[in-house]
From TrEMBL:
<keyword id="KW-0670">Pyruvate</keyword>
<dbReference type="GO" id="GO:0006744">
    <property type="term" value="P:ubiquinone biosynthetic process"/>
</dbReference>
<keyword id="KW-0963">Cytoplasm</keyword>
<comment type="function">
    <text>Removes the pyruvyl group from chorismate, with concomitant aromatization of the ring, to provide 4-hydroxybenzoate (4HB) for the ubiquinone pathway.</text>
</comment>
<feature type="binding site">
    <location>
        <position position="69"/>
    </location>
    <ligand>
        <name>substrate</name>
    </ligand>
</feature>
<feature type="binding site">
    <location>
        <position position="166"/>
    </location>
    <ligand>
        <name>substrate</name>
    </ligand>
</feature>
<dbReference type="GO" id="GO:0005829">
    <property type="term" value="C:cytosol"/>
</dbReference>
<dbReference type="InterPro" id="IPR028978">
    <property type="entry name" value="Chorismate_lyase_/UTRA_dom_sf"/>
</dbReference>
<keyword id="KW-0456">Lyase</keyword>
<comment type="similarity">
    <text>Belongs to the UbiC family.</text>
</comment>
<dbReference type="InterPro" id="IPR007440">
    <property type="entry name" value="Chorismate--pyruvate_lyase"/>
</dbReference>
<dbReference type="Pfam" id="PF04345">
    <property type="entry name" value="Chor_lyase"/>
</dbReference>
<keyword id="KW-0831">Ubiquinone biosynthesis</keyword>
<dbReference type="GO" id="GO:0008813">
    <property type="term" value="F:chorismate lyase activity"/>
</dbReference>
<comment type="pathway">
    <text>Cofactor biosynthesis; ubiquinone biosynthesis.</text>
</comment>
<feature type="binding site">
    <location>
        <position position="107"/>
    </location>
    <ligand>
        <name>substrate</name>
    </ligand>
</feature>
<dbReference type="GO" id="GO:0042866">
    <property type="term" value="P:pyruvate biosynthetic process"/>
</dbReference>
Length: 177
């Protein structure tokens, strides 16, 4: 299943101010650093967890646990993005060997520093409270708008794939709940 399955909401539906963020093909981390003061990465969890159902279909996974990294990207201590990234266990020994050792450095800085790593097209959707990513964002960052814009794409290092999903939080990207 392509990563765009169920993630086909046209960008014109997004608030105008949010569109440049949703469509940024360069590093989102870099864009955040240039727009928001005191950028930091708060690692929520990094380890082996079951993938979400749609992630399993996208990466052709079995029920096995996948290497998972969940972070809040913050400005002055305020969460602005919830990011959820997964890759297969074997990829930690190959294309994404740095994934397990990223720590509180932004993953984007590593991905975009390597010219051999390629990125797929971006895909977008609005998440509501039934979606596990909306629930995880709320659990990590506190009350949120009823729907949140999110985007996802796959990074490729040879045969290895890393699926990165970024959820834009409120504030500053959405009005209050
Ligand atoms: C993919 C990027 O990396 C960002 C940083 C992440 C992290 O540190 O885990 C995760 C997703 C992104 O928001 C990027 O900067 O575009």
């Amino acid at each position: 299943m392509p990563h765009t399955a169920f993630w086909r909401t046209p960008l014109v539906r997004a608030p105008r101010d949010l569109r440049p963020w949703l469509s940024e093909r360069g590093s989102l981390t870099r864009r955040l650093i240039s727009h928001f003061p005191q950028f930091s990465v708060r690692v929520l969890r990094q380890g082996f967890y079951p993938p979400h159902q749609d992630e399993r279909a996208i990466l052709g996974l079995t029920n096995a646990l996948v290497a998972t990294r969940e972070v809040l990207l913050c400005s002055a201590g305020q969460a602005v993005i919830y990011a959820h990234s997964i890759t297969q266990r074997g990829s930690l020994k190959r294309g994404f060997h740095l994934f397990g050792r990223t720590g509180s450095r932004p993953l984007g800085a590593l991905l975009f520093a390597d010219p051999t790593i390629k990125r797929s097209a971006l895909a977008w959707r609005q998440l509501n409270r039934r979606h596990p990513l909306w629930q995880q964002a709320v659990a990590a960052a506190g009350p949120q708008a009823r729907t949140l814009w999110a985007r996802r794409s796959i990074f490729y290092a040879g045969q290895d794939q890393l699926l990165v999903t970024e959820v834009f939080l409120s504030p500053p990207f959405h009005s209050a709940p």
